[in-house]
Structures are given as structure tokens and as C-alpha cells.
């Protein structure tokens, strides 16, 4: 029973863990590993409940007539083991969250062990008991909402086969039904009763799961669409300013863990107001679309292209030095210079752009780097436009 009290004491630790998780925003926006941490905390809570229930039975002799006491004593030890295991499994999710093998395999391991422990307890209390049925349906539906479908079905298809097999073997007399209890009435051996329960349960379960899956698919599609619209500029189909700020914040967090190497490039179209005033805003919009297309063509998939406002764009070049950023910016400058755009009167519209570059350096935060790139852009404009200027190679180096 000493283990029982120590497990109860650990509940305060799990409470603090839950509070820290909820500080990271809505549950639906959490990463898979954070959702697994929540699931592990809930799994530990389930087994803590079992420990308390079984401990209460052991401490009250008047309840022994209703249960298999020897089995209860064995199972409480196993519940304590699961409680400790689920608590310890939270550690890899926290310490090694950045490791790919943890991100790829640990959710499957966590969900698999949790479902296996629930199936074991479901057999002990009876596979057709209300508690088992409610637990099964609840875990499937909640799992489909929170976790990827593949992860959920990989765990619950074997669980379904296991529960169905236990029910069949219990009916055939090969296995004991609900061995933890001393049952009377033996309704589980009545074929008519079992078939009647399955007749009502299976259609309702299948219908609910089908409707839930359909609604969930529509809801996820809508959420993805809303998220996409909130992060993308509708005209150029590049990232908007809000999304760019999020990328810069992520770089700031990454810088605290390790020294990230990247470069920020600001791009401003030269004399863009004249294009709008002379040829119309529709031609200005067309110029912005063509420029964004060229910028996207000349960067890597891992890089970020965004419209920072008006006629200004931004490039975030990951794993790029100042020299590499200059080469990318020069290719983009030449590509923009070669854009062919005609007015409504078939007059050629010339498009050029100025570029300002700032490369990452120790102690310089992303927002500061953005200001440095803006100074470099100003210098490029001052030198005659249609140029690439780097902050650390410019004449104002001594102002850092």
C-alpha cells in the first residue's frame, strides 16, 4: 500500500504538467507530442483510479464476496506499474521532443500501450459492460479529434479484434467473462442476450463512427482552409505579414536553443506608385503577382517568401550566409528586371526592385535583423535603386 500513497502523491506533479500544457494554447493547436503528453497524463489518471478502487476493496473485507480478491491483489500491482510507466513516458516527450525518432514513433508507442492497458481492464470487467463500451467509443472519438487517423486506427483495430475475440471465447466457455467479479445470473452465456446486445450496439456504433468521421473530415478541412487564409496574402499567394512575424518568432525561439544561421532579405519595387498612377491598380496588382512568382522560383522550398506590405516583400533564407543571400538576391533582382508586362495600350512596363540584406549574427534577434535589412534596403534606394545592398558591407557598418 506504500506504492498506493506514493502514486497519489505524484498526482500533484501531473496537475502541474497539465497546467503548463494548457498555457501553450488551445488543445487542437498542440503538436502531436504535446497531445501524447496529455494522453499519458490521462492514462496515468485512469490507472490511479483503478489503484484507488482496488485499494478500497482490499481495505474493506465486506466487499471481498463480490470480487476475486487474489486477482485484485495481482492487478493492483500491475496498475501501479502502468501508472509509473505512463508517468515516466512523459520524460522523452519533453526532453527529446526535437528528435525525429521521438516525433515519428513515440506517439504510436504511447497510444499502443495505453489502448492495450485499457483492453486488459475491459476484459477484466467484461467486454460487454457499459464501462468498457463507453470507454471504447469515447477513446475512439476523442482520439480521432486529437490525433492523426492512422495513429488512432493502428491502435483501435487490433483493440476491436481483441475485445471481440474475448467476448466470443467467453461465450464459448474458453475464457472467464469479467473474471474480476463474482457474477450471478450468467447472462453473458445466453446467446440470445449477447446477440441482442450486439444487434443494438454494432449498428449504433458504426453509424456514429461514420457520421463522426465525415463531420471530422469536413471540420478539419475547414480548419486547414481558415489557417491557410489567415497566413497567406490573397493577391500574391505568399505568406502575409502575420505569418512572417510568426516565422521570425520561431527563429527567436530557435536562437535561444542553438545559433541559427539565416538571412533576411527585404525587397521593394522601384517606383511602384508610378505604375499604379500611370497604368492603373490592376496592372500594379499584376506586377506584384509576377514579382512574387519570380521570388518563389529562385528560393528553396525551405525558405520563406512573404508580402510584407504594399509593394514590399521579404525573404527568410534558412541556413544561408551573407554571401549566399547576396547570390540569391542578385538572381531575384535579374529575374524581376526581365519580367515582361504590358499596359492596356501594349506599352512595356519596366519593373525593377531594390534589395536589402542582413545576415544573422550572435546576439542579434530576428526583429533587430529585420531593422538592419531595412537600413540596407534604404541604402540600395539611395544608391540609385535596382541594386542589392548588404548591411554589413554598406557604408554604415559602424552604426551596428
UniProtKB/TrEMBL annotation:
Species assigned in the record: Acinetobacter chinensis
Reactions performed catalytically: 2 GTP = 3',3'-c-di-GMP + 2 diphosphate
InterPro entries for this protein: Diguanylate_Cyclase, GGDEF_dom, Nucleotide_cyclase, Rev_trsase/Diguanyl_cyclase
PANTHER family: DIGUANYLATE CYCLASE DGCM-RELATED, REGULATORY COMPONENTS OF SENSORY TRANSDUCTION SYSTEM
Enzyme Commission no: 2.7.7.65
Group of enzyme by EC: transferase
Residue intervals passing through the bilayer: 36-56, 76-93, 105-127, 133-152, 159-180, 192-212
Alphabetical keyword list: Membrane, Nucleotidyltransferase, Transferase, Transmembrane, Transmembrane helix
Protein name: diguanylate cyclase
Record has Membrane as a keyword: yes
Chain ranges of the GGDEF domain: 260-393
SMART domains attached to this UniProt entry: GGDEF
Keyword Transferase: yes
GO molecular function: diguanylate cyclase activity
Amino acid at each position: 500500500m506504500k506504492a498506493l500513497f506514493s502514486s497519489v502523491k505524484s498526482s500533484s506533479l501531473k496537475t502541474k504538467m497539465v497546467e503548463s500544457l494548457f498555457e501553450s494554447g488551445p488543445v487542437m493547436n498542440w503538436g502531436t507530442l504535446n497531445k501524447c503528453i496529455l494522453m499519458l497524463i490521462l492514462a496515468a489518471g485512469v490507472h490511479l483510479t483503478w489503484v484507488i478502487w482496488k485499494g478500497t476493496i482490499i481495505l474493506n473485507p465486506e466487499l471481498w464476496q463480490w470480487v476475486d480478491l487474489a486477482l485484485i491483489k495481482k492487478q493492483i500491482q500491475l496498475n501501479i506499474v502502468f501508472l509509473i510507466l505512463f508517468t515516466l513516458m512523459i520524460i522523452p516527450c519533453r526532453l527529446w521532443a526535437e528528435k525525429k525518432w521521438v516525433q515519428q514513433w513515440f506517439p504510436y508507442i504511447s497510444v499502443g500501450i495505453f489502448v492495450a492497458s485499457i483492453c486488459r481492464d475491459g476484459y477484466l470487467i467484461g467486454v460487454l459492460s457499459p464501462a468498457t463500451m463507453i470507454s471504447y467509443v469515447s477513446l475512439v472519438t476523442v482520439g480521432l479529434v486529437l490525433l492523426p487517423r492512422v495513429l488512432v486506427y493502428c491502435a483501435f483495430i487490433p483493440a476491436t479484434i481483441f475485445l471481440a475475440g474475448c467476448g466470443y471465447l467467453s461465450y464459448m466457455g474458453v475464457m472467464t467473462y469479467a473474471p474480476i467479479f463474482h457474477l450471478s445470473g450468467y447472462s453473458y452465456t445466453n446467446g440470445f442476450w449477447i446477440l441482442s446486445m450486439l444487434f443494438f450496439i454494432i449498428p449504433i456504433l458504426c453509424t456514429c463512427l461514420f457520421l463522426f468521421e465525415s463531420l471530422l473530415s469536413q471540420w478539419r478541412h475547414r480548419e486547414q482552409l481558415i489557417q491557410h487564409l489567415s497566413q497567406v496574402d490573397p493577391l500574391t499567394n505568399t505568406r502575409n505579414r502575420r505569418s512572417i512575424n510568426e516565422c521570425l518568432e520561431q527563429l527567436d525561439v530557435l536562437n535561444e536553443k542553438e545559433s541559427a544561421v539565416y538571412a533576411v532579405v527585404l525587397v521593394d519595387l522601384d517606383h511602384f506608385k508610378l505604375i499604379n498612377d500611370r497604368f492603373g491598380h490592376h496592372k500594379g496588382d499584376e506586377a506584384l503577382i509576377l514579382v512574387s512568382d519570380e521570388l518563389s522560383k529562385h528560393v528553396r522550398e525551405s525558405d520563406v517568401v512573404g508580402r510584407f506590405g504594399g509593394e514590399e516583400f521579404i525573404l527568410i533564407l534558412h541556413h544561408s550566409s551573407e554571401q549566399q543571400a547576396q547570390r540569391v538576391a542578385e538572381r531575384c533582382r535579374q529575374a524581376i528586371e526581365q519580367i515582361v508586362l504590358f499596359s492596356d495600350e501594349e506599352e512595356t512596363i519596366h519593373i525593377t526592385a531594390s534589395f536589402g540584406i542582413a545576415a544573422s549574427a550572435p546576439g542579434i534577434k530576428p526583429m533587430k535583423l529585420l531593422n538592419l535589412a531595412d537600413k540596407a534596403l534604404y541604402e540600395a534606394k539611395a544608391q540609385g535603386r535596382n541594386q542589392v545592398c548588404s548591411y554589413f558591407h554598406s557604408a554604415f557598418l559602424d552604426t551596428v
